[in-house]
Amino acid sequence: MIEVLVADDDFHVAKIHTAYVERVPGFAVLGRAQSAAETLAAVSELRPDLVLLDIYLPDDNGLNVIRRVLDRAAEEGASQPPDFIVISSARDVASVRTAMQLGAVHYLVKPFGFATLRDRLSAYEELRQRLTTLDDQADQADVDALYGLLRGPAMLPPNLPKGHSAPTLERVRDAVRSVQNDVSAAEVAELVGISRPTAQRYLTYLAKHGVVRLRLRYGVTGRPEHRYGTTR
């Protein structure tokens, strides 16, 4: 279970974000904070894995909170400070750049819906799981995959052509994302419960729009097999 602290000066917004988090399997909200001082105290007391942090707090800038948490962790020799997802109405590039420099795993601009936060939390959970499977040393492919996970799930293309169903397209995309290795159209068809030609049609469309990647597996003889994987 990933334990989360929600820090926002607006009580109603914090309540909404808390409800969003608790709808995502594998996440639990430990508490809420409405100021920088409360956030720092809650981080020390509750030891959350992740903090959803607003920038505009009444007593300090949320980015300064991240600095203070990181500095305190370094001074105390803490093994692992919490991760941060910055959630703010601040759209200026300087704030975004600073959040990136401080290591925030995501930056969400208010307002946003449940699906947006759910996708970011799912990507974060997958990142944590991937980190636990790696050895002490990571090769370039591992590093690329980890950084790719921070981007979140690839967005589905808008304006689907005639004969394509958005729910089916989403299920096909999620089927590709659900496995670690590349999959074939036949394997996706079995996972989703559709025919192989239908799966192939949707996979071809997703690959064309960069949502999944196509790899050709060459055998000894015959045509190469089409395999599909995530773009992250």
Question: How would you describe the overall organization of this protein?
Answer:
- The structure is a single chain.
- With 232 residues, this protein is α/β, with parallel strands linked by helices.
- It is built from nine helices and seven strands, in the order E-H-E-H-E-H-E-H-E-H-H-H-H-H-E-E.
- The strands form two sheets. The chain has a five-stranded parallel sheet with strand order 2-1-3-4-5, with helices on both faces.
- Helix 3 links the parallel strand 3 and strand 4 (83-88).
- Helix 2 runs parallel beside helix 3, helix 7 (166-177) crosses helix 9 (196-208) and helix 8 (185-192) crosses helix 9 (196-208).
- It is elongated.
- The model has no long low-confidence stretch (mean pLDDT 86).
Please name the defining characteristics of this protein.
47% helix, elongated, 232 residues, 5-stranded parallel beta sheet
Topology, pairings included?
Elements: E1 2-7, H1 11-22, E2 27-33, H2 36-46, E3 50-53, H3 62-76, E4 83-88, H4 93-101, E5 106-109, H5 114-133, H6 140-149, H7 166-177, H8 185-192, H9 196-208, E6 212-217, E7 225-230
Parallel strand pairs: 1-2, 1-3, 3-4, 4-5
Antiparallel strand pairs: 6-7
Helix pairs in contact: 2-3, 7-8, 7-9, 8-9
Task: Describe, in short, the structure shown.
By secondary structure, this protein is α/β, with parallel strands linked by helices. It has helices spanning 11-22, 36-46, 62-76, 93-101, 114-133, 140-149, 166-177, 185-192, 196-208, and strands at 2-7, 27-33, 50-53, 83-88, 106-109, 212-217, 225-230.
